[in-house]
């Protein structure tokens, strides 16, 4: 039942994509003084040790964060991201990678709230330990992710982000996640919803996009990054869809990933656009 642990994949190229998007959204939320809330529906462990047995077994971070550590003149969003990553490491150390709760924790102000949801018994233990060390308003929930979205949205804070980053090990998630998003959006139309999906050679994500278009929600921003499109199988890219995307986030992301493709991922492909019903 609890087979997926993100520590095997921490710092991979998909993490780079989703976490740069996440940081861009959080920076936009910070531009207003009023409090916001962020809900991380599949929070994971908080921070990951890239020297762990699990991480070394797959070594996926070598094609992700490891490459970014070698960039000489990073574009603004990448620079800000690397500063957050660096804050979890000693000077000159490249060992720890912050997951989405760690990035969110860095961006929460004293009056903002973070809600981290996780169900895996190993991950929730690590997440609780991480959260206790943060001097922020953080609530950790051990419960089903989609049930938590139904129960906890909308927020008292009136504005915020629902960040949804599943493993998709259960293929029915491609449908159930969009059903949950549609229901939550009807209760919280001003909220930002960000949903990550893997781009696999099998094309499972196409069903998710079809279901999303059927919801009737208009002007959904979509971006996809494939730093290694030549891969013959498996995950060849990373995708995000964002409902109520902040103003000019699209410009920032396009500049960011085109810069990464030019400097580090010379065969990389990036595309973005808007989904309309």
From TrEMBL:
Ligand binding (S-adenosyl-L-methionine)? 19, 42, 100, 118, 144-145, 165
Q: Which residues form a coiled coil?
A: none
- Give the annotated active site: 165
Gene3D superfamilies, from UniProt?
Answer: Vaccinia Virus protein VP39
Q: Which GO terms describe its cellular component?
A: cytosol
- Site-annotated residues for Interaction with substrate rRNA: 4
> Reaction catalysed by this chain?
adenosine(2030) in 23S rRNA + S-adenosyl-L-methionine = N(6)-methyladenosine(2030) in 23S rRNA + S-adenosyl-L-homocysteine + H(+)
User: Which EC class, in a word?
Assistant: transferase
Q: Which UniProt keywords apply?
A: Methyltransferase, RNA-binding, rRNA processing, S-adenosyl-L-methionine, Transferase
| Any one GO biological process | rRNA base methylation
Q: Mention one GO molecular function.
A: 23S rRNA (adenine(2030)-N(6))-methyltransferase activity
Against InterPro entries, the record matches this protein to:
RlmJ, SAM-dependent_MTases_sf
| Enzyme nomenclature, EC number | 2.1.1.266
Reading the lineage from the top rank, the first entry is Bacteria
Q: How does it assemble?
A: Monomer.
Q: Tell me the protein family, please.
A: Belongs to the RlmJ family.
Q: What does this protein do?
A: Specifically methylates the adenine in position 2030 of 23S rRNA.
The name under which this protein is listed is Ribosomal RNA large subunit methyltransferase J
Q: What is the lineage of its organism?
A: Bacteria, Pseudomonadati, Pseudomonadota, Gammaproteobacteria, Candidatus Berkiellales
